[in-house]
Amino acid sequence: MSSSCFSPGTEDRAAGGGLINRRWLLKNSLLAVPVGMVTTQASSDPLRVPEWSSAPGLIQSQYGQPSPFESHVTRPVLGLFPEGFGDGSGVSFTPLEKLAGTITPNGLFFERHHSGIPEINPDLHEFVIHGLVEKPLVFSVSNLLKYPMVTRTAFIECARNSYFNSLDEPQQRSAGELHGLIGNAEWTGVPLAALLEEVLVNPAGSWLLAEGADAAKYSRSIPISKALEGDVLIALYQNGERLRPEQGYPMRLVVAGWQGSMSIKWLRRIKVMSDATHARDETSKHTLLQKDGLARQFAFELGVKSTITTPSFGGPPVREGLQQVTGVAWSGAGKIAKVEVSADGGRSWADAILHGAILPKAITRFAIAWNWDGNPSILMSRATDEMGAVQPIRTDWYEPYAAGQIYHQNAIQSWGVSEDGEVSNVYV
Fold first, then answer.
1. 43-47, 161-165, 364-368: which has the highest mean pLDDT?
2. Which of 77, 130, 165, 205 is the most buried (most CB within 10 A)?
3. C-alpha dist (Å) from residue 82 to 62, 90, 91, 235, 386
4. Does a structural domain hold residue 275?
């Protein structure tokens, strides 16, 4: 590779493989360098007036839409699950590799349905809290909208995320298809704890059964202690606008940091009980089968995890020179404390820069400068949360589990970069 006045010296490197010390990055803006890309040749008349500046444009609209030049930014929709699409069940993925920042746009937030999306008239929908309570209450949507609301940023992640990265052979799929059963949003609604105070819970009530209004009557058991801690919200808004139908309109639970399936959509009732219900989807699924034949149940919290989104499979080839490696990290236990990146398959690691506000149980974006020399490389990211949990390597994560175990897989992701700059999913 040709030398450049912007190339950092050996003392500026944070690890092997060309990762750059973040102090150097802070002193030397990447905006001033070619970022490893081929620059576009300048126009022979750079000050000419382009055609779109020669006449008035479109008028304002009642609801904004993305630019038609961004029409490729969509959710991949796949039939991963045995039940297929015949009964309305299915899944779509957040296209992580096509997004920046940490907030997932509403139209790109992943979906998982067990019996399709019900079309609910909010004027007719009712939500009830009953069971071991002294004062059962029924809430209409208009009634809930009158309550004092709070706003919290939190991710929702399907416990089956990393489905494709759990198979025996690495699948050549995008970062979104490998890890995109997750979305991060600003949720606004009523804390469930406030409503539980109103119904006067019986001291024997230690569990909640939450059930949706979809045809599957999807339900999960939730320890009441989680709700009383203030970590459960009855959300009515997502990123400032009313929930969309695929996200649970007119109301859903948001159970911060725990399995996404517990954040019940189209919420219709919560029953206070003395024990867990052992519903179908928390016994036949969402259990962790071990090699000793025993299965762990009620492993609710989602582990610390990260993935590099750029560069990644499906994106443009990597080119020699200085560029940015970026991705996202999250933990169900709290805040992300640090993210390390390796460009040599895990032999050495460098601390990435964490961008923006670092919030508990929310996505955090990380980035690091990388000066690629054109030799084959393996990029990896490793997150650590504020509780000290460290994202494990694949072999360590799989060690206690039986073959085929896929729930809660949070192992380190590895991207191989070939001499020609092509990126592929590899197992290390």
1. 364-368
2. 165
3. 40, 9, 12, 30, 37
4. yes
Q: What is the pLDDT of residues 133-153, one digit of tens each?
A: 999 999 999 999 999 999 999
Q: Number of folded domains in the chain?
A: 2
Same domain, 266 and 326: no
Number of helices (H) and strands (E) in the chain: give both, helices first: 6, 24
Which sign, positive or negative, has the C-alpha torsion 112, 93, 185, 108? negative
Tokens of 145: 């909208």
Domain of residue 392 covers 305-426
Q: Any idea how long the chain is?
A: 428
Asked whether residue 368 falls in the same domain as residue 420, the answer is yes
Full DSSP string of 129-190: EEESBSS-EEEEHHHHTTS--EEEEEEEE-TTTTSGGGSSS-----HHHHH-SEEEEEEEEE
Residue pair 302/296 in contact by the 8 Å Cβ criterion: no
Cβ within 8 Å of residue 11, ≥6 positions away: none
Task: List 128's β-bridge partners, or say none.
Answer: 138, 269
What are the pLDDT digits (tens) for 265-278?
999 999 999 999 99
Dig out the tokens for 250 from the structure. 């007119």
Q: Report the pLDDT value the prediction gives residue 281, as an integer from 0 to 100.
A: 82
Q: Is there a single domain that holds both residue 267 and residue 379?
A: no
Reported as a single tens digit per residue, the pLDDT across 28-80 is 655 444 444 444 555 678 888 888 888 999 898 999 999 999 999 999 887 65
Helix, strand or coil for residue 144?
A: helix
Radius of gyration of the chain (CA): 24
The single residue listed with the structure tokens 């990055």 is 25
The pTM score is 0.91
- How far apart CA 336 and CA 312 sit, in angstroms, is 22
Residue 183 within a domain: yes
Count Cβ atoms within 10 A of the Cβ of residue 25 and give its class: 0-12 exposed, 13-18 middle, 19 or more buried: buried
Evaluate if residue 208 carries a pLDDT over 90: yes
Instruction: Match 């796949």 to its residue by tokens.
Output: 78
Instruction: For residue 283, give the DSSP letter.
Output: T
Residues paired with residue 123 on neighbouring β-strands, in sequence order: none
CB distance 116 to 215 below 8 Å = yes
